[in-house]
Predict the structure.
Amino acid sequence: MKPFTGTFPAVVTQMRQDQSIDLDACANHWEAVIESGVSGLIVCGSLGENQTLLPDEKRTVVQHAVAIAAGRVPVLSGVAESSTRAAISYLHDCEKLGVSGFMIMPPMVYKSDPRETMHWFRTLAKSTALPWMLYNNPVGYHTDVTPEQFTELSDVPNLTAIKESSANTRRITELRNLTADRYAIFTGVDDLFLESAILGIDGWVAGSGIAFPKENQQLWDLSRAGRWDEARVLYRWSQPLMKLDTHIHFVQYIKLLCQETGLGTEWVREPRLPLAGTEREHVLNIIRDALATRPRS
Amino acid sequence: MKPFTGTFPAVVTQMRQDQSIDLDACANHWEAVIESGVSGLIVCGSLGENQTLLPDEKRTVVQHAVAIAAGRVPVLSGVAESSTRAAISYLHDCEKLGVSGFMIMPPMVYKSDPRETMHWFRTLAKSTALPWMLYNNPVGYHTDVTPEQFTELSDVPNLTAIKESSANTRRITELRNLTADRYAIFTGVDDLFLESAILGIDGWVAGSGIAFPKENQQLWDLSRAGRWDEARVLYRWSQPLMKLDTHIHFVQYIKLLCQETGLGTEWVREPRLPLAGTEREHVLNIIRDALATRPRS
Amino acid sequence: MKPFTGTFPAVVTQMRQDQSIDLDACANHWEAVIESGVSGLIVCGSLGENQTLLPDEKRTVVQHAVAIAAGRVPVLSGVAESSTRAAISYLHDCEKLGVSGFMIMPPMVYKSDPRETMHWFRTLAKSTALPWMLYNNPVGYHTDVTPEQFTELSDVPNLTAIKESSANTRRITELRNLTADRYAIFTGVDDLFLESAILGIDGWVAGSGIAFPKENQQLWDLSRAGRWDEARVLYRWSQPLMKLDTHIHFVQYIKLLCQETGLGTEWVREPRLPLAGTEREHVLNIIRDALATRPRS
Amino acid sequence: MKPFTGTFPAVVTQMRQDQSIDLDACANHWEAVIESGVSGLIVCGSLGENQTLLPDEKRTVVQHAVAIAAGRVPVLSGVAESSTRAAISYLHDCEKLGVSGFMIMPPMVYKSDPRETMHWFRTLAKSTALPWMLYNNPVGYHTDVTPEQFTELSDVPNLTAIKESSANTRRITELRNLTADRYAIFTGVDDLFLESAILGIDGWVAGSGIAFPKENQQLWDLSRAGRWDEARVLYRWSQPLMKLDTHIHFVQYIKLLCQETGLGTEWVREPRLPLAGTEREHVLNIIRDALATRPRS
């Protein structure tokens, strides 16, 4: 029985213009996401600006999310550290704060080789009793865990899920051919959702959908029901919004998107800056065009 | 009414060990492909080793294909030339030989910029009255025709189809959102077939499937019938074979695959060499593993 | 005794606005280049638009160059063919036309693997008695000949020179450490000339310098004389012009540069188009800025 | 008057097998480096494993280096943080610890765009009164500061030096043509040292040379004296060792190199692992071959 399946959106960390964390705004947003019917919540992922939060702040966000979810859905924390030692401390602290599991990334900054990558994930897995999802994103983090490596990792008992964000959908079929149903396979690439769903997946770490949670959940439900023609229509509508998730400014884009749908604000933590000039206008146009044709529920 | 839809396999040019063209072997292979129920045949594409055939040889292959098809299915020729002048000559000669249309590639060797690319395709389009398919493969040929450029090209009357081989399935949804049904969209990437089919396509320029034409046609038919669960099973089986189409040695791999299924030989034209050593063993193992689990018809 | 050392500029093929070859303009330009003191002349290279010339045209250009040079300097022809068979024909025909040797490129279009690349060069080497230079340009042609492969090729007697255009100057030191003085090493990257010269080279296949042959030859001579401080001053002046040689539009840029210095015209053969709009203005500004500060001779 | 010129080696952080920092081993190594005649010392750079040191550890290393140098040479600290807030804290703490300046990197993890990059460097510059060197390494850190951006940054008074590690030596000439002598230009790429030196540089952030400090300093001195032929001989000898600095495992390689020359040990901090198997053998062979032909002093 896999502990994690279904939609597990990765949420942003809402901030004020002065870059401080706005826990009330976080709560409002998370409520809307939970109410849409998601299966779980992921905080402190890439979209949550993990790498710019100070150690204490990350723990505060996690604690707050556990309190808000209040057992309705499991809360996972992203783990994005640059040293093994810091990662283990983080796992231990989050366990005490009551998370249900983790979404663990490869080491930050250093591009570990396959031997080091396997060592990293095995060492971290041993440091916690909780189930976890391996976040594979070689495009963003330059470290790749191949289907062959996932075959090797089959003996790690608490590694129960894969977030496949290689942007190479072939990986899903390769994983199924090599590991059958050993892992819950999540896609982590919004604008490859339908392509991934048809191949047979168990879950979705949605990004841009946190700004339009109802449609996002509906798209997932249509795919589970095999209502592919309806899913395709909804997917074509949402594509311009989903593409906001795969740009290098995806945090800024999705925060702006949340602002436009009334679920947050656009403020980010430095070194990120809020969008400006023609880029902000361009993204706003994409958002407003999409919202103008939003399907009636 | 679009002149080209359905499966249009791109076939190899069968050769003898001395690198001469074996027209009888071509005829045998093409017959098997036509009998599987394809909608058309493409000769002298990349898989047909267009760029290593001498000018006279290309024309001989085209003439032979038209004679073998004998009106049962349309025959298209790939157009892969490095100068505008040579490309126009080729279009004119093929028209006289009786082809039904073309699959036109960007200029070979030179990486044309967007202005030059548009000029190339418009100039060639004006040089023939026949319908043609634009083969977009920025991975293989370093020139990209974007969805925005396809919108601009909507006024070219005989450009009726797109072979989308960017390996970025997002392009299909982008094209549908921008150009609706203006073009017949073909996928040209075997191992992204199912991902492409779910998005809504009109055709498939199959590659590796020329070695197992029945299953290939069956996969296409299942997708058209919306029998996605069965399609997924067949797709997972065929993936290792389909991946042979996206390696830099795809010509050698697919010719070896044809040899193993009894539809041809592995001989290629230099500068290509037949596979050797561990690489040949590796590919043979993939092929034999797949054939051992071939679904019963 | 190495047959080729010193400056061997690769010249453009002068054309008229209607894209036909202008042999008189070629003659004028080649005269100016020869008079500047070069050690040899290379026609029908990349800069000579080899790949867009028809087979007969290439041979005409070669014949004309041999006649113009009239024994004053050796004439080499570039060899840029996509099949082994066509390349061998070309070698034979050029021998009869009186060239002194060749600058041979890897196969065009097909990205040969190391085994195929070695086979290609060995097969072509056996087809001619003339000395030749291997043109290694993995940036432009996607096929790389490594220093280790050059060590293996040491037993090919008529392979006497390397045109190193990997844009990785480390290669020169690696070649010297591995093959000492077995090969005459030419650099083929104008805007890495000084970096290459300090490492110890034997020659230079100059590109942009065909538009300002006197300064180009002077830069070479300063480097041979160990007058590095003067060379650096001249190199800094020429850098903006030399960078025109490493853009994807290098043919258009250098033809425009020749036009501005009175040594030719900007017309090119399709699929290339003459520069237009802001790009043309930008390049003209670079050229005019450089010419305004041209050192007095 | 530029505060930093000459050789400023970036040193490793010596560790024990249990991954703890070995301050005594650091002191021994730093003494050897200082005695070779360097102009300064850089700790907590990439080679110093900055990103895997805990916040307190970095400060301890800096404090220790200032004590060991004891005013003989300036000590700089690398600044490699992923948030602006953490970077400013680090600058303030190091000031109190007595450093003479900084080598500041772009944000870690996040790939800032040009606007954000400029904001990052300007914000950090304002936070300290000390002079600093901007470390530009788009190959390693995916953020590029172009010569045009350096022109813009000319008004930042304490930005006095550039560590150019783009591995594109053209940048040095471009910087000289655009900014003349505004900045002290250091090369940070060992195996492009001679190519960089001939173009006119002010300093060298040496890496592999910390394992053979005498020869490294000698190479620098020869280049300053214009004794290029002798420099070339020494450079050819050292190239295999210098190439150890540009591999993804450069920390492990250079620590192993230090171990072989008696100046340290190979232990690294996780997620890095010490080298193993054929890779370790391969690197040891390179090192031992080079040491066997070490020039007599």
Remarks:
- DSSP finds twelve helices and eight strands in chain A.
- The CA atoms of residues 10 and 207 of chain A lie 6 Å apart.
